[in-house]
Amino acid sequence: MNNDLPRWATAFVMPLLNLMSALLVAALVIYMLGEDPGESLGILVNSAILNPEGLSYTLFYASTFIFTGLSVSVAMQAGLFNIGSEGQMYIGGLGLTAAMLAFDQTLPAWVLIPVAMIGAALFGALWGFLPGYLQAKRGSHIVVTTIMFNFIAASLMNFVIVKYLIPPGEQNTASRVFATSGEMPRLNTWFPGLGDTPLNISFILAIVALVIYGVMVWRSSWGFKLRATGLNKHAAHYAGVSISKMIIIVMLISGALAGLGSVNSIMGSTHYLSLNFVGGAGFIGIAIALMGRQHPVGIFLSAVLFGALIQGGFDLSLEKPNIPTETFIFIQGLIILFCGAMENFYAPAISALLKRNKG
Q: 206-234: per-residue pLDDT in tens?
């Protein structure tokens, strides 16, 4: 049914209807909690979008989500459902931290920051390589292996931080604070109106990553092979594409992008490695890829939406105590449900409406 619809319907109308459906259910839940949905939405929008400082926080969260959304999206282009961006971002943060702890006392900022980013991308890529290799060479299902690797990554991080990274005499499960030369430059240095927020040049790097992704996927011969693999592996194989090689390369790229998601969280905000720094960003990336239809513009808008939900949700829960912060995890789940499992829910109705108008 979805193939019968024009591109504007599948790329814009259906995601919008799915989003509105999720927000409608969320409004019903807020009403049942004893609050006015319209007033609550106004508070959320004002806090996350209209207020310059709130918008800065929204874009800060979106910077991480863009990378995890790209991580899931590039795998989807090859027909792979990478559930492991959470673990890949975890391990990417470990690579970043290893570079920081080794060089932050000796290297200048203009060298240290790229080295740390390379460490994040490299470790994330290696963590993505393992399930990619198992899928390509051993036939293991990518969904199963990436889920398992999320748990392995979480356990490994706990062991490494507790055993090796906690400074002597400290109780917090975190590494030492990095040198100031390892901090990502903040955008409020050039735009004071943004306020004292952690929004940094990771946002600009995320936009660059979106552009590169768009060019590579839709404007290169490799991108054509990538999409051909996702559409029909057998046809791509007969056309000369090495499916196993493509799977491994894509998972390396996917893991590297997830690993780069740690740069914004660690180097742009906390400036040390903590146990739970990922905070579900890898799983949010799945929703962003689904809702954004693996398109750069869609990924950007979806990332901003989820950033707004987090930022606006914090303020809304403060002003409306009847609405707990867990409500916005529920809303995220609704968006995943409508934009993922029920993405074609409105397809029959749209198709019937278009046929009626033609008739």
A: 999 999 999 999 999 999 999 999 999 99
Q: How many CA atoms lie within 13 A of 356 on its CB side?
A: 6
Distance CA 318, CA 309 (A): 14
Q: What does pTM read for this prediction?
A: 0.93
Say if CB 84 and CB 127 are below 8 A apart: yes
Mean pLDDT of the chain: 92
Type and span of the H or E element at 22:
helix 14-32
**Cα 84 to Cα 283: distance, rounded to the nearest angstrom:** 8
Structure tokens, 303: 């990332």
Distance in angstroms (rounded) separating the CA atoms of residues 255 and 68:
9
- Identify which of 91, 119, 140, 69 has the alpha carbon closest to the alpha carbon of residue 278: 91
Place of tokens 């529920």: 330
The type of residue at 321 is P
How far is it, in rounded angstroms, from Cα 119 to Cα 44? 37
For residue 248, count other CB atoms closer than 10 A to its CB: 18
pLDDT digits over 302-320, tens only? 999 999 999 998 888 888 8
* C-alpha span between 265 and 25 (Å, rounded): 31
Among 286, 274, 328, CA closest to 154: 274
pLDDT at 1: 45
The first and second tokens of residue 224, run together, are 């054509």
Torsion of CA 349, 351, 352, 354, to 10 degrees: 120
* Residue 224 to residue 219: CA distance in whole angstroms: 8
Contact assessment for residue 61 and residue 200, using Cβ atoms and an 8 Å cutoff: no
Angle, vertex CA 295, rays to CA 124 and CA 221, nearest 5: 80
Query: What's the CA gap between 141 and 132, in Å, rounded?
Result: 9
So what's the pLDDT on residue 332? 79
Query: Residue 200 pLDDT > 70, yes or no?
Result: yes
Share of the chain above pLDDT 70, in %: 98
For the stretch 272-287, pLDDT in tens is 999 889 989 999 999 8
